[in-house]
Amino acid sequence: MKKHLLALSITLALASVSSLVHAQGNLAAGKQKAAACGACHGEDGNSLISTFPKLAQQHGSYLIQQLRAFKDGVRKNAVMSPLATSLSDEDMADIAEYYAAQKVSANAEPTLPPNDDDVKAADVKDPSAKKPATIETLLAQGGNLYRNGDIPRAVSACIACHGPYGEGNKPASFPALKSQHADYLIKALSDFKSDERSNNPENIMHMIAKKMTDEEIKAVSYKISTMK
Ligand code: HEC
Ligand code: HEC
Fold first, then answer.
1. How far apart are CA 157 and CA 144, in angstroms?
2. Ligand 1 pocket, 74 CB below 6 A?
3. pLDDT tens track for 100-137
4. Average pLDDT along the chain
5. Distance 176 CA to ligand 2 centre (A)
6. Centre of ligand 1 from the C-alpha of residue 41, in Å
7. Angle CA(35)–CA(81)–CA(42) in degrees, nearest 5?
8. How far is residue 45's CA from residue 58's CA, in Å, rounded to a whole number?
9. Residue 84 CA: which ligand 1 atom is closest?
10. What is the distance between the alpha carbons of residues 92 and 82, in angstroms, rounded to a whole number?
11. Model pLDDT, residue 19
12. Is 26 within 8 Å of 94 (Cβ atoms)?
């Protein structure tokens, strides 16, 4: 069986150069096919809405992996699953080629969202009793976790797989994270933590995220959103 597959793949590889080009995806065709995605992800893959992920500059192999996962139902999302179901392998390869060739846009400087606890803290008699975190301390905490992880609690350093600049790892299909929207990152990490998103066979991100507190998820997400 294996021998047969190997012989077949060699035959296919030699059969025509166009099949190789095909497997790589066609950028111009991808641009046309991605028109349907632009309403949410932005025409060039830089979505303007923080809960819709940016796809620009993402590794093609990772994009294809995720689209297959939506199509096969192993990554669940009410919006994306039906859309991915209508895509052929060729469509996915073309669209991935297009988004991978775009440049991800930088985000505006983050600000700390007002939250109820902070408002209440201002009302208590001793204001120093509960100091709201500043955006600077949050970013510093996130940057520290990104670079160093938390070894005693076995939280791996993100830098090992997602790179010093959040550029990911193309050969390994580890996604680029830089300049992604913080809100989407928080959702992705929370979904890994709860095991809602578990399409990766090794479940790497679940093992990491389940050890992270919600505060750490917020801190590292804000930090990543500022990486360029
Ligand atoms: C109506 C809005 C909408 C449209 C249209 C849409 N998407 Fe999405 N897409 C989303 C949302 C929301 C998510 C995040 C899902 C989640 O939270 O897991 C997503 C996630 C993705 C992801 C995963 C990104 C990552 O970083 O893991 C890919 C890839 C993707 N979409 C590709 C496409 C393609 C290709 C099209 C067009 C055929 C498309 N989307 C059309 C809303 C949309
Ligand atoms: C051992 C390698 C590894 C380490 C370490 C790692 N990741 Fe990941 N990460 C992955 C892989 C692989 C995926 C893709 C998972 C999938 O396909 O579902 C991923 C996916 C993600 C995603 C989803 C991206 C998207 O576009 O949807 C986020 C967010 C993320 N990682 C954040 C982190 C953070 C934050 C850390 C550090 C606390 C971290 N990762 C550490 C390998 C790693």
1. 9
2. no
3. 999 999 999 998 876 655 545 445 455 554 556 799 99
4. 87
5. 9
6. 7
7. 30
8. 9
9. 38
10. 14
11. 39
12. yes
CB 27 within 8 A of CB 101: yes
Cα–Cα distance measured from residue 1 to residue 7, given in angstroms and rounded to the nearest whole number: 10
CA 209 – ligand 2 centroid, Å: 9
Question: Residue with the nearest Cα to atom 37 of ligand 2?
Answer: 158
Locate tokens 């990486």: which residue? 227
Query: Residue 177 CA: which ligand is closest?
Result: 2
Torsion of CA 104, 213, 51, 110, to 10 degrees: -60
Any residues with CB less than 8 A from the CB of 23 and at least 6 apart, and which?
Answer: 93
Query: Closest ligand 2 atom, CA of 221?
Result: 35
> What is the residue whose two structure tokens read 């997602």?
162
